Amino acid sequence: MVENFYKKKLIEYLKKNMRKGYPMETLRVALVNQNYSRTVIDEAIKEAVKELANEAPVLKEKPQIEHEIITEEPVVVKKSFWQKIVGFFKK
After folding, report:
1. DSSP state of 21
2. Contact of 24 with 18, CB cutoff 8 Å
């Protein structure tokens, strides 16, 4: 019962700090330095990750937006320099 209480406290501690953005390895080292058992820490990390995954919102896939440029002015194709020269001599 007492171990279960400490495990719940560890899970809450891990969830709170993971939400703040602390790396998991940093939290693990901090708990080991505070003389917590490695097995209890690993179990608490698994539980915290599972609970956070359940709380995370499901992301919907965003539709792909396609852009099309429509202009009212007609597109004028200009002749290149060499096309102008060839056209000049064909006359």
Report:
1. T
2. yes
22-33: pLDDT as tens digits:
999 999 999 999
In terms of C-beta distances under 8 Å and separation of at least 24 residues, what long-range contacts does 11-19 make, across chains too? 11/44, 11/47, 11/48, 11/51, 14/44, 14/45, 14/48, 15/48, 15/51, 15/52, 18/48, 18/49, 18/52, 19/52
User: Which ranges in 21-80 belong to alpha helices (H)?
Assistant: 24-33, 38-55
**CA geometry: angle 65, 67, 68, nearest 5 deg:** 150
Cα 57 to its chain centre, rounded Å, is 13
* pTM as predicted: 0.58
